[in-house]
Every structure is written in C-alpha cells, then in structure tokens.
Amino acid sequence: MQDFEHGAAANDDHYLPARHRTLPIPESVTPIANYPAKLRIFQTLASRYWQVRCYFKGKTYTQSLKTTNKSAAISQAKQFFHIKTAELYGERIVVKEDRAVIFNDLVIATLAQQQARVERGELTALSLAILRSRLSKNIQPCLGAMPIDTINYQHLTELVNRLNKRGLSPTSIQQHIVATRKVFHYAHGMNLIPSLPRFPSVKIKNQPRGSFTLTEYRSLVTWAQRLTGTRVPTEVTAKSRRGELNVEQYGRISRDLAWLIRFMVNGFVRPSDIKYLQHQHVTVVRARHIYLRLNLPETKKHDKPIVTLQAAVYVYERLLAWQQSQGFGKPTDYVFLPEQQNRDLVLETYRWQFTWIQQQAGIGRNAANGQNRTLYSLRHSALTFRLLYGRKVDLLTLARNARTSVEMVEKFYSSNLAAEMNIDVLQGRRS
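RESULT FIELD:
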C-alpha cells in the first residue's frame, strides 16, 4: 500500500503479472503488407525489441528481431518468413497436379539452398539478401509465372531489355543474370529441366573507379573538420533518408566524419566494413613498422586481416580517446557512431553527410570519367595512392591486403595508371 500512497499507478508495469509482459501490445501488432495475414510483428512489455510471429503447418514460430526500428523489423520479418518457408518447404517443391512447375516455385527452394551455404560459412548473409532482392524486385515480376521448362533465350533477352529500360547498368544487369542462372541451376540439379537455357551476353565496359586526387582528399578532411556540428540541409537528408532517421540527432556533420575519411584512405576498407567494425577487430601493432591489424568479418569471400598504413594508427587512437571520454570504446563497441545500433542507418548517415561535404568543398564529378564520387571512392583512393606513390608495391600484396583480387586491381586501377606509375622510368636518363 505504501507505493499507492506515493502516487504509483495501479497499471504500472511493476504491478502487471509477469506472464502479461510477454503478450503482444495490441496497438503494436502490425501485419506485413503483401505477405500472409498470419505474419506479424509486435512489441511486448518484456523487451524493447520487435518480435515476429507466423504460423506454419499448424505451429507458431516466434523470434526476436533484435531491433527497435520498426522499418528494420518489417524488413527482417520478411527475411524470417522466407527463411522459415525455405526450411519447411524448400526440400520438396509442391505444386498442384494441374499445372507445371513455374519459376516462382523454385525461388524459395533456391534461397533455401543458399541459406544453407550461409550457415556453412560459404556465403555471407549480405550476399543472400542481395540475391533475394534481385529475384523479388526485378526477376520474378518478369519470369515468375512462367513454367520453368518453357523459359528460353528469347524470354531471358526480354528480361535483359526490361532491366535496361529501367536504367540498370550493364554490371547490374549481368549480376541479375547470375541470380537468374542460380534458379536454373537448381532446377537442373532437381531434374526439372534437361539442360540450362542459353543466356544473353551483356558487354561490360571496364571503367576506372572514381577516386579523389590528393588535393581533393585533403580538402575533404579540412571541410569535414570545419563543418563539424553544422546542420546538413534538409534537401540533402531527404534524398537518401531511409527508415526512421533521427534528423535531429544525425542531421549535423558528425565529429568523426573527418576521422572516417582519413581512416578509409589509410585503411583500404569498404564502407560496408565501417558498419560492422568493432574495437575488438582492431589491434595496434608497434614493431619494426607501426600499423593497425584489422580482423574484420568476412567480406566478398575474403577473411584475411587487413594491414593499414601508419597514419591510420594516429586516426584510430584519437578517435578511441574521444569515444572513451563519451563512455564508449569497449571491445564490442562499434568504432564509428557506436551509439547507433541500426548499422544500416549509420552508413546512410555518413553517405549524405559525405555528399554535402563534397558540395561544400566544390568537388564535383570525377574529371577523368564523369563519375560521381561516393564513400566507396575513399577506398578507391587508398588503392590508387598506393599504386602511384607506394615504393614499388606489387599487385598481389596490395590485392590481398585490400581483400580483393589481382584481376580487380588490374582491371579497375593499375591499367589506367600505368603511365603515371612508371613516370620515373619514362622521365629517367641513362647514366
């Protein structure tokens, strides 16, 4: 009675029976559009995270989505549905006897097969998500209702033409062809088709990657430092805002944006690495050489450590000192924007901040090829600077350290810099 005398409300969480805390909050229950009605997300008093629930074969499956963001929860609920469907139905494709097996019938089974590869460590979860997106958004609307054994070269050519009309690049179209071929490979393996159809070829012109000059790079760092704390115009944030972006919190240039720019140029990392990089992945090495060893999660089938340049040590130690003063810096804390657990939002935040910094610095498209520069261009700059200014660095060493292939370095970097890389030879004289 003492609590009531001090004004506590009888319906406070403290007074609810424990079992009630696990029940869905009625106003939070949300069905997923264009999915079965029994697929829903909800919240409970027992957890701050969204939950997903669905019914399969008379059984209820519930799972925490480990996110407080509703948009992210909806996206993850869809993935949950596809994975669970594949687990329960993927091994056997069941269709009505009065119709043939169509392309859509095979997509779930193909995704189940790829999910098994993720679980074996042969494929990243990100790669699976990209495959699922390409199939659902662009391929299934075109081929989904067609019997798998009737799809031929003409139909596949029509798919390519449709993708081209939608403005996809030749590279993107080729990636969609690869996704389509995976479904046919599964069908062939299940003896549903006697052979694979012929696929149209798409000519891809190798373009040098967009990068920055040394002058542009220094200007970016200067402007990022100069504009720290200033608000980004809403026309910039609105263009790329996704989900429930907290503009009040992230609508200003982050203190660590300048550190991010320098870290990427001296660390050879991809923007996707920034999402998941934690302090436990970073080791400061002080031996004959001083550098960071980055034991990042696997990316693009590469899992070897990355070795940074010495300047990255300077950046990291100052960033860490700042974060520790703010209560972060623990091994499991993220290196960049650690307070934000929605890591997709982190990358989105940096993207439009970086866009505005470029605008303020007067940096437009790449003069060599007319390409827009993005966060990814910082990685390209890291590789380009090593090729131009490194002391006879060999391509194999550079490729392995950057978690890429010699072919990719040769195709997109060194072939376009051959003359500049050998300027000392070209301008040298015989003694």
